[in-house]
Amino acid sequence: MDEQTAKIISRMQGEIDRLKAIEIPTRICVARYTTNAGQSIGTGGSSAIIDFEDLSIDTDSAVTVGAAWKFTCPTGKGGIYHVEADVTYASTAWAASNVAQLFLYKNGALYSVLRRKTMESAVTLYNNIHGSDTISLAAGDYIDIRTSQNTGGAVALHTDGLNNHVSIYRI
Question: What is the reported pLDDT for 46?
Fold first, then answer.
């Protein structure tokens, strides 16, 4: 092989390697999970990761369940995602100015407050908070949903998956 042909082949191989590295999105990526476990959420300033442990849909096995629940963006599926979450606290006494919040975290850092609900008066009820946002994820990025409340004691989530769910899908 002459020197000119070797250079052409080398350039072609470099271009092939460059094209292989480009992440080309394929089909849609969807995950939906619920929880009916009655997870206890402590009071105060810290938020708790919600363990949506019950699988509804997970096209790419992208979710890790448990105390460190998270959705990890699969290889080849980077892009813009829509996240929706709905959480209901079990019936409890809420004082005026008590707050329940729902958060979206990306790679361990707060990305957005999906909902902040402040009680206007003392009441005993099932407290529902929900929200949605859009987020850009690259392969390997992960997100989780967290909640917090400040009633002065731990409050469980309602034990009904119809009221506690998260949906994540690539748009």
Answer: 87
Beta strands in the chain (DSSP E): 30-34, 40-41, 48-49, 54-58, 63-64, 70-72, 79-94, 99-106, 109-118, 123-137, 142-149, 155-156, 165-170
Give the DSSP letter of residue 134: E
Question: Does 44 have pLDDT greater than 70?
Answer: yes
Pairwise CA distance, residues 94 & 102, whole Å: 17
Range of the domain at 137: 26-170
The answer to whether position 78 is within a domain reads yes
3-class secondary-structure state, position 42: coil
Using the predicted structure, report yes or no on whether residue 54 has a pLDDT greater than 60: yes
16-30, 35-49, 64-78, 98-112: which range is least confident on average? 16-30
> Residue 26 — very low, low, confident or very high, per pLDDT cuts 50/70/90?
low
On whether residue 93 sits in a domain, the answer given is yes
CA distance 8 to 4: 6
CATH number at residue 158: 2.60.120.40
Tokens in use for 169?
A: 């899908």
Q: Determine the Cα–Cα distance for residues 71 and 63; give it in Å rounded to an integer.
A: 4
Q: Categorize the per-residue pLDDT at 2 as very low, low, confident or very high, splitting at 50, 70 and 90.
A: confident
Which residue reads 């300033």 in tokens? 45
